[in-house]
Amino acid sequence: RLSKRLATVASFIPKGAVLADIGSDHAYLPCYACLHGYVSKAIAGEVADGPLRSAQQQVEKAGLFDRISVRKGDGLAVIAPGEVDCITIAGMGGALITRILDEGKEKLAGVKRLILQPNIGAELIRRWLFDHGWELIAERILKEDGQIYEVLVAERGDARRPYRHLEAELLLGPFLRRENSEVFREKWQRELLHWKRIIADLAEKGESEAARVKMRELEKKVQLVEEA
Ligand code: SAM
């Protein structure tokens, strides 16, 4: 059985899509997507040898080697322009996911949907999507084994559409903020506590300009979250 986290990602794969799962590791997601009829064909991309082998083994074990192509490479280097129409990138930090998208921009031709699951730093991804004409069309937040995860789904369109309060919602997520679920509130209560501890630390020992800049940044974020 797939984790709740990856099952949530899979639930957004359009039926009949040609999928690339980047940073696939064990390839659970493309295998699941094939076995459950979401996709007929998929590519599992991996940059590291260990996870690449584990993807190959999993695909072999599931009898899917004729439908899932396991490829080694950095980010979107494993796909050709126009080859896939849906990309999933899950289980990494927002900065890495953003770098993969940015460095692979020319490979996004023909891609209709991005499904991104950052473990941290979703804000960086929302900003990248916003700046590159991708419209956020759905978001999920979920908790599994004590960890809180976000899933962002985007298609080409009007990148501004979901946003009413841009700065706050790039941070919090426009859909998640409006939904205001228990898990969402828990996430931001945790973050607030964490930031306030850092601010207190900086206030105690931070004489430098860098410390003051960092403090002001965090105070602004605290304000955005508290207002929301
Ligand atoms: N996507 C799976 C999931 O969500 O369960 C695996 C997540 S795992 C924590 C992250 C994987 O991304 C690792 O297997 C790592 O080797 C791979 N990875 C990291 N940077 C990558 C890159 N630039 N291109 C492709 N894969 C990458």
What is the SS-derived class? Answer: alpha/beta
Return the CATH architecture of the largest domain: 3-Layer(aba) Sandwich
Shape descriptor reads elongated
Strand arrangement across the biggest beta sheet: 3-2-1-4-5-7-6
Give the biggest sheet: 7 strands, mixed
**H/E order of the elements?**
HEHEHEEHEHEEHHHH
Query: Given this structure, which CATH class of the largest domain is correct?
Result: Alpha Beta
The CATH topology of the largest domain comes to Rossmann fold
* CATH superfamily descriptor of the largest domain: Vaccinia Virus protein VP39
What's the end-to-end separation, in Å? 36 Å
Description:
The protein has 228 residues and is α/β, with parallel strands linked by helices. The chain has two domains: 4-160, Rossmann fold, CATH 3.40.50.150; 184-227. Helix content is 46%, strand content 23%. It is built from nine helices and seven strands. It has a seven-stranded mixed β-sheet with strand order 3-2-1-4-5-7-6, with helices on both faces. Strand 4, helix 4 and strand 5 form a beta-alpha-beta unit. Helix 4 packs parallel to helix 5. The radius of gyration is 19 Å and the shape is elongated. Bound molecules: S-adenosylmethionine.
